[in-house]
Specification:
The protein is of the alpha/beta class. The chain is 40% helix and 14% strand. The chain has 13 helices and 13 strands. The strands form 4 sheets. Strands 1-9-8-5-4-2-3 form a 7-stranded mixed beta sheet, with helices on both faces. Strand 6 and strand 7 form a beta hairpin. The chain is globular. The chain starts with 6 loop residues before the first helix and ends with a helix. 48% of the residues are buried.
């Protein structure tokens, strides 16, 4: 059986180091605001290459806290609009709604499935205050073009980098930027299945803006500027010491993990040849958190692969505007988004796969 992703197998190489790290936290008697979180903040901002990193409880909170901080800083107000890709995971949309802002859906590119500058431009209204590009499946959006539109209209940009740990963008000036470091802020999730996953929920906000970092930190800790002094109506959205310790153990291996995923994806792109299957187009760097294929007979393909011992997943079968939570948006005409939702199938693409397993996936798909 080729699992889509076996988290026990993913974490097996780090088992002893993880146990040592967790034991160290238990023995320290310090479980919040300790040395592990402090060091993790330094490690991750160095890796992403931003001035500040605020560790938080999960990826949704990372997104929401940035938007709430911009409201507290007077840069937007409740009811303002945030442009989001229509085909993203619902957390991207929930963050906007939770911050009392209005999500405005933009259709993705039909080949990369990512938000584009053209899609953003079409969605801008006088109430637009921010853009939320999602580096979906691990591929970085066309951020230079999106940033140009943002500057033209004086909009904030919040990168949803929950699926793109370590992906890079080669800029026109020759520099290389990590996803999450290009916009005004970047939000990360370290959910266990991510390329860099904790042993539970965890997230982070990265930014070069000191006032934003401070405000996010305060909002995440009950709105406190110091103990028992609360200047905002904040929340409890803090990363704990155990998750930080686990992430520190696994961070050194992230680039190797990404290289292995890229190698598998490159084989898929070269060797899968089936007229019924549409392969993703990769125009920028991707760390292949997900390898999505489109197939009009998606359910039949999934059943066929399962019968051959290959497990798959669907990301995401019901688009946000068709969810009950957003029933007021269900009449939106979003044909590209609906097509992706109806046809997308995620095939195994992870660092635990052997070459023989990759070969089997290719051969079985080619026979479908």
């Amino acid at each position: 059986m080729i699992q889509y992703l076996d988290l026990k197998q993913v974490n097996a190489p780090y088992e002893e180091k993880l146990k040592q790290a967790l034991t160290g936290v238990v023995d320290s008697g310090w479980y919040l605001f300790g040395q592990e979180v402090e060091q993790w903040s330094r490690d991750w901002k160095f890796y992403v290459n931003t001035r500040y990193c605020v560790p938080v409880s999960n990826g949704l909170d990372a997104l929401r806290l940035v938007l709430e901080a911009w409201i507290e800083l007077g840069l937007m107000k409740p009811g303002d609009e945030v442009i989001v890709p229509a085909n993203t995971y619902i957390a991207s949309i929930l963050a906007v709604s939770d911050a009392r802002l209005t999500p405005v859906f933009a259709e993705p590119d039909s080949e990369t499935y990512l938000l584009t500058a053209e899609g953003v431009r079409k969605a801008i209204t006088p109430k637009t205050k921010a853009i939320l590009p999602v580096h979906l499946y691990g591929q970085t959006c066309e951020m230079e073009e999106i940033m140009a539109v943002a500057r033209e209209y004086n909009l904030k940009v919040l990168e949803d980098a929950a699926q793109s740990h370590g992906s890079v963008l080669k800029m026109k000036d020759g520099s290389v930027r990590k996803s999450g470091s290009i916009g005004d802020a970047g939000a990360f999730s370290f959910y266990p299945s991510k390329n860099l996953g904790a042993l539970g929920d965890a997230g982070a906000v990265c930014t070069d803006d000191e006032s934003l970092a401070v405000t996010v930190q305060q909002l995440a800790n009950y709105g406190a500027s110091r103990k028992y002094v609360h200047i905002f109506k904040g929340e409890n959205c803090r990363m704990d010491e155990m998750q930080a310790a686990c992430l520190r153990v696994k961070l050194d291996d992230l680039d190797r993990v990404n290289r292995r995923r890229k190698a598998i994806a490159e084989r898929y792109l070269r060797e899968i040849k089936n007229d019924r299957i549409t392969l993703p187009v990769c125009r920028t760097d991707s760390v292949w958190h997900i390898f999505p294929v489109l197939c009009p007979q998606r359910d039949a393909l999934q059943d066929y692969l399962r019968g051959e011992g290959i497990m798959t997943q669907i990301h995401y079968p019901i688009p946000p505007h068709r969810q009950g939570a957003y029933r007021e948006l269900q009449e939106l005409h979003l044909p590209v988004t609906v097509k992706i939702a109806h046809e997308e199938l995620s095939i195994p693409c992870n660092q635990c796969m052997s070459e023989a397993e990759v070969t089997k996936v290719i051969e079985v798909i080619n026979r479908f």
